[in-house]
Design goal:
Elements lengths: L2 H10 L19 H18 L11 E7 L2 E6 L5 H14 L11 E4 L6 E4 L1 H6 L24
Antiparallel strand pairs: 1-2, 3-4
Length: about 150
C-alpha cells in the first residue's frame, strides 16, 4: 500500500495498527477501502464489547497482507468471535475486489504456478505476465546457445 494510504490508516486507527507502525501494509491500494471498512468495523465491535481502549487490551493487528489473492488479517493475540467474523467477511470480499484499483474482480492464477491474485479484467490485461514459452524451438535465435540449447 502506498505511504499516503498507510499513513491514513495508522492515523485513524493507531491502537489497532500499533504493531505495524514501522512496517507497510502488504497489499495494494485497490483494497484500501476494504481495509478501512474492516478497521472501522473491528473498532466498533471492540467498543460494543466494552474492551478498554488501552494498548494492552485493544485488538492489535500483527499482519495485514495479500496472500493467494485474498486479504489476510492476523492479530497478535486472541480476539473475540465477532472480530474473527468481521475479518472472515473481509477475506471473502477481497476475492471480489481488484487489488490494484478496487473494481469488481475475480481471483486468477497469473503464472499457472499458484501465484493467485484478485484482478479486474482491465488490470489483468495491463499486468499480464510474459507468456511462458513451452516449445523452446520457437525461441528467438539470440536466446539459443551455439549448440541449440538454452
Amino acid at each position: 500500500m502506498n505511504p499516503e494510504n498507510t499513513s491514513k490508516l495508522l492515523t485513524a486507527y493507531p491502537l489497532l495498527y500499533r504493531n505495524l507502525r514501522n512496517q507497510s501494509f502488504e497489499c495494494e491500494d485497490g483494497w484500501f477501502d476494504l481495509v478501512w471498512q474492516v478497521s472501522a468495523e473491528i473498532e466498533a465491535a471492540a467498543q460494543l464489547e466494552g474492551i478498554p481502549k488501552t494498548a494492552k487490551a485493544w485488538p492489535s493487528v500483527g499482519i495485514l497482507k495479500q496472500k493467494f489473492g485474498t486479504l489476510r488479517v492476523q492479530f497478535g493475540t486472541r480476539v473475540i468471535e465477532t472480530i474473527e467474523a468481521l475479518v472472515a467477511k473481509a477475506y471473502e470480499r477481497s476475492m471480489e475486489r481488484c487489488e490494484l484499483c478496487g473494481a469488481p474482480a475475480t481471483r486468477v492464477d497469473r503464472t499457472q504456478g499458484g501465484q493467485m491474485e484478485t484482478l479486474c479484467e482491465s488490470c489483468r490485461k495491463a499486468h499480464r505476465p510474459p507468456p511462458r514459452i513451452q516449445d523452446k524451438s520457437k525461441l528467438p535465435v539470440w536466446m539459443l546457445e551455439r549448440d541449440g540449447k538454452l
